Structure prediction request, 132 residues.
Amino acid sequence: MSQNQVILSSGRRKASVAQVKLVPGVGNITINGKSANEYLQKDALSLHVIEEPLKTVYLEDKCDLFIKVQGGGLKGQAKAIQLGLARALTTYQASFRLNLKQKGFLTRDSRVKERRKYGLKKARKAPQFSKR
Prediction:
């Protein structure tokens, strides 16, 4: 990675939006001004989700990540960061696209919570029916 190259990308999942900035470095991950371990409350699974695209292309200790994320919960934010990072890596080098696509990192998960309908308690849950 060249010293002055900065790559910006974004990823979304449910209500979460992540802006990922990929810069040359030593492997530090900063999310909203905090270290990734601190921001994700020491959740190893979410941290693994974020680091997986970097490990796939063998760049885990060659670049730093500066991430701004908002909305949703921590799991949705982690998946949004993963998508943004995968998109940034394909911008950095087009040959990474095949490996990232095969692992499913470039596919946006478009499932969101269904809206509540009038007359129902939730999206599909109806009030209890009484025959008599």
